[in-house]
């Protein structure tokens, strides 16, 4: 097997399958040999049986993920890869996620590497438009319509210690250049975690953060500690859970009072369909914002996210998502009346935040993809000044390394 003599290995192992029916390692080797000969279906059968006997074998999960990917069952492949591998800040689409995981799995299985990595560079052009709302109608800004350039670059690394233990880290830099130069958007996102693949699942403990610059000296620093858990309920369904405590800090400037701490928890479920080519996921979350000097006080938050992704062969993917969050604040204060002009009212602020987006990914050359996307944002509030809406559309070219 180490010499990649898969055909000889398969011919040697296949006749012995009945006499090794309860040997997980035997069926792992049989599946690896079948995969090496290009017979992904036979590999799938053998590797599924191996995992039934030993669900803690992370290399068997990687091999099964590669078999599913070869069969075009991308949603099932991702669930298997994520038992053994973790990369944050991955793109939204299923196709690219699985390609990144598959490359890493190949390095582990074929080249026996304990350290794997990926990288990317993205560039594109788009349009940002502010839509009319009660807030923009009163305070202005609803006529903003600008073009921008996108730049993004980053990557990740994963190191396995054996027995399912691993560490991983990612960096992700994003910047937008607006034609009108009225805004300067820059973000550096990072993560570092330790994880273990166990019992057909993965548990991770780590830190993630974000440093943002919005121009005019306004910075935002986020740092969060988190615990994430995922478990494959079967070959089609995955359960996810997570808890995090995040400190969002505005070090100086007019936004400093918005600094706050957020404690939250989430529970999600994803399922594959269309013979594994597509995925649907739903995640609910809830928590509280506290330790803040915001005039409206602390707030309870809860919401949900739904995502649908469909792969059309090895080069085309389409996805759509919706996100909603409700923020209920705890302080009564004077605001402009939500329905009457030039009148005031004492009320507690309540926000409903919505986002919806869709995108298409076309891999026109190996490791090169064209990615048009649309994003709609709507913030509704009983406080006039916090009503906002925008529509963004862009097209990017991405190169994976």
Concise description?
With 401 residues, the protein is an alpha+beta fold.
Could you explain how this protein is built, in words?
This protein has a 14-stranded antiparallel beta barrel. The chain has two domains: 6-97, Serine Threonine Protein Phosphatase 5, Tetratricopeptide repeat (Alpha Horseshoe), CATH 1.25.40.10; 115-400, Porin. With 401 residues, the protein is α+β, with helices and mostly antiparallel strands. It is 20% helix and 53% strand. α5 (74-84) crosses α6 (94-110). The longest helix has 17 residues, at 94-110. It is elongated.
Number of domains: 2
CATH superfamily of the largest domain: monomeric porin ompg
Strand order of the largest sheet: 1-2-3-4-5-6-7-8-9-10-11-12-13-14
- Rg result: 24 Å
What's the CATH class of the largest domain, please?
Mainly Beta
Question: At CATH's second level, what is the architecture of the largest domain?
Answer: Beta Barrel
Order of helices and strands: HHHHHHEHEEEEEEEEEEEEE
Q: What is the approximate shape?
A: elongated
Structural class: alpha+beta
| Tally of helical runs | 7
Mean pLDDT: 93
Q: How much strand?
A: over 45%
Helix fraction, binned, reads 10-25%
Uncertain runs with pLDDT below 50, 5 residues or more?
none
- Rounded to the nearest angstrom, the distance between the terminal CA atoms is 27 Å
CATH topology of the largest domain: Porin
Overall strand count: 14
Reported for the largest beta sheet, the result is:
14 strands, antiparallel, barrel
């Amino acid at each position: 097997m180490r010499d990649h003599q898969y055909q000889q290995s398969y011919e040697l192992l296949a006749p012995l399958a009945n006499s090794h029916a309860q040997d997980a390692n035997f069926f792992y080797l049989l599946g690896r040999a079948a995969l090496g000969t290009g017979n992904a279906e036979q590999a799938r059968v053998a590797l599924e049986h191996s995992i039934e006997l030993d669900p803690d074998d992370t290399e068997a999960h990687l091999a099964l993920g590669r078999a599913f990917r070869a069969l075009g069952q991308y949603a099932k492949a991702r669930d298997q890869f994520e038992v053994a591998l973790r990369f944050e800040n991955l793109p939204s689409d299923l196709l690219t996620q699985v390609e990144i995981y598959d490359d890493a799995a190949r390095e582990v299985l074929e080249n026996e590497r304990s350290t794997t990595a990926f990288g990317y560079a993205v560039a594109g052009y788009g349009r940002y438009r502010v839509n009319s709302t009660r807030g923009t109608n009163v305070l202005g800004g609803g006529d903003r319509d600008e073009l921008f350039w996108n730049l993004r670059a980053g990557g990740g690394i994963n190191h396995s210690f054996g027995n399912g233990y691993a560490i991983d880290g990612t960096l992700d830099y994003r910047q937008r250049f607006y034609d009108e130069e009225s805004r300067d958007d820059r973000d550096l996102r990072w993560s570092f975690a330790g994880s273990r693949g166990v019992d057909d699942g993965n548990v991770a403990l780590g830190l993630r953060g974000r440093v943002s610059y919005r121009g005019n000296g306004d910075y935002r620093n986020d740092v969060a500690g988190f615990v994430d858990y995922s478990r494959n309920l079967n070959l089609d369904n995955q359960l996810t859970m997570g808890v995090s405590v995040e400190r969002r800090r505005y070090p100086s400037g007019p936004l400093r009072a918005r600094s706050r701490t957020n404690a939250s928890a989430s529970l999600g479920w994803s399922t594959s369909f269309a013979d594994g080519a597509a995925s649907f996921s739903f995640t609910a979350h809830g928590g509280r914002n506290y330790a803040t000097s915001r005039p409206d006080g602390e707030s309870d938050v809860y919401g949900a996210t739904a995502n649908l992704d469909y792969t059309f062969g090895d080069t085309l993917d389409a996805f759509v998502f919706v996100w909603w969050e409700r923020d209920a604040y705890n302080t009564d204060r004077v605001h402009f009346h939500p329905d009457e002009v030039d009148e005031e009212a004492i009320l507690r602020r309540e926000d409903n935040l919505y986002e919806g987006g869709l995108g298409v990914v076309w891999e026109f050359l190996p490791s090169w993809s064209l990615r048009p996307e649309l994003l709609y944002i709507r913030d509704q509030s009983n406080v006039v000044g916090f009503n906002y809406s925008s529509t963004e559309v862009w097209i990017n070219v991405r190169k994976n390394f």
